[in-house]
Amino acid sequence: MAMIKENWQKALFAVFGFYPLCLCAAFLTHGEMQQASIAFAIAFMSFLYSNLTRFKRFKGLGFEAELWEGKQIEAEILIDRLGKLVSVYTHEVVLGNVKRGRWDNASRWVDTWKLYDDLTSQQKTINQNNDFAKLKKETDDYFLFDMYSYCAQECYEILSKGLNSARDILDSRFPNPIVDSEGHSELYAILVLISSPPAVSTTKITDFSNLAKEYMCYCEYAMVILKSKFDVTVEFEASSWAKLNNIAFLYENRPVKVTPKLLSWASKHEITL
Predict the structure, then answer these.
(1) Are the CB atoms for 247 and 147 separated by under 8 Å?
(2) Among 162, 194, 235, 253, which lies 20 to 30 A Cα-Cα from 187?
(3) What's the CA gap between 269 and 157, in Å, rounded?
């Protein structure tokens, strides 16, 4: 019923145009060109009005016309292309900002996340629903890495004091000339092993696993070895250890919800928003 209500005018003009079209054919068979032309004009106008809503514009009886349907298809294609272009642009702009000047700007992460929010939220203004999950994941990778780097540095400064104490104890146990070379070599090899934290390459940040969790395992292992082999006790600051634990949790529970506290961890500065 709704379809009939919306299209009854079209149907009426189409039926009305069909009769003069038949008359036009009849006049033509009898060679009555004038009457055939009039009938054809009436039929033509009837068919035109039956499809009037499909036209964007037309110019007199000259006759220039544009169909809405064609323009709508073109618009849909352009909007789709625009959406893809905006998605690529947003991805490159945000990641470019993430990678640029990563260590010398206290407000860098504040600016980066503001840029991310501004660009992704603008999608709604052009009716785009691009999926930025990949961009969020990559940006989170760098964000977590910066938090981890500063926190790991804090922990290693404490661990290094314990390692230095262990070296002093090793030297006191095996003074020169070293008599028990085998015993010295064994302890020295153990000390070298725990002196090197997990290697990290900054060129492959998005490929890393849970660095904070791995670093905590390394620290715990080093603490046990230092105590058992050298009788050296290492105690990390509760705040630094809690940070590492939280960063490990954030890695496993993405996407990361950005807060002023996390921004300060990633920039080693107190952040006020």
Answers:
(1) yes
(2) 235
(3) 18
Query: Helices 68-99 & 108-121, crossing angle to 10 degrees?
Result: 170
Strands 55-59 and 64-67, by their bridges, are antiparallel
**Amino acid, res. 46:** S
Return the number of other C-beta atoms located less than 10 Å from residue 51's C-beta.
13
Helix axis angle for 133-173 and 238-252, nearest 10°, is 140
Summarize pLDDT for 59-93 with one digit per residue, the tens: 444 444 454 455 556 656 655 666 665 676 677 77
Alpha-carbon distance of 215 to 217, in angstroms, equals: 5
pTM of the model: 0.67
User: Over the stretch 153-173, which tens digit does the pLDDT of each residue have?
Assistant: 999 999 999 999 999 999 999
**∠250-255-256 over CA atoms, to 5°?**
50
- Residue 49 host element (H or E): helix 33-50
Question: E-assigned strands of the chain?
Answer: 55-59, 64-67
Residue, of 107 and 67, whose pLDDT is higher: 107
State how far the Cα of 187 lies from the Cα of 182, in Å rounded to an integer. 9
Q: Which residues pair with 65 in a beta bridge?
A: 58
